[in-house]
Known about the structure:
Oligomer: single chain
CATH class: Alpha Beta
Largest sheet: 3 strands, antiparallel
Strand order of the largest sheet: 1-6-5
Number of domains: 1
Distance between the termini: 28 Å
Order of helices and strands: HEHEEHEHEEHH
CATH architecture: Roll
Helix content: 25-40%
Number of strands: 6
Radius of gyration: 15 Å
CATH superfamily: CBS-domain
Shape: globular
Amino acid sequence: MRAAEVMTAHPESCHPGDDVEVALSVMDANECGVVPIVDDDGRIVGIVTDRDILFGARRNGGSLAGLNIETCMTKDPVTARPDDSLEEIVQRMARAGIRRIPIVDDRGKLEGIVAQADLAIHIDDDVLVAEYLRKVSAAPADEPAVER
């Protein structure tokens, strides 16, 4: 099975200069905890999670006021291609310790996103999925995820 078959296609995205409130609104509307960040041409330049925003607010004196996405996002995130196999993707995500991976075309334009739930549902290799979950679940609780 390939990424294109299980990804959330054309996810809503934000721009680096947007206020974090914009990203939080996208997360709320889509019931998700991550937003891909793209440039004006639709190329992926980052990714921001709800947890990244929480740590950004903490660094900002506990406030979201004046906090933009660029100050919280992970720049140059790990990505995959639509025709990558789910096995390749789960291994890449495990190595990077991430829970979601943007899917991009050859020019780096955002096409979709694959989340750990997609992997758990669609990969039949329980050992591979369990190993992945062990690796990403081992991230320290007091630091932003690798995705920052």
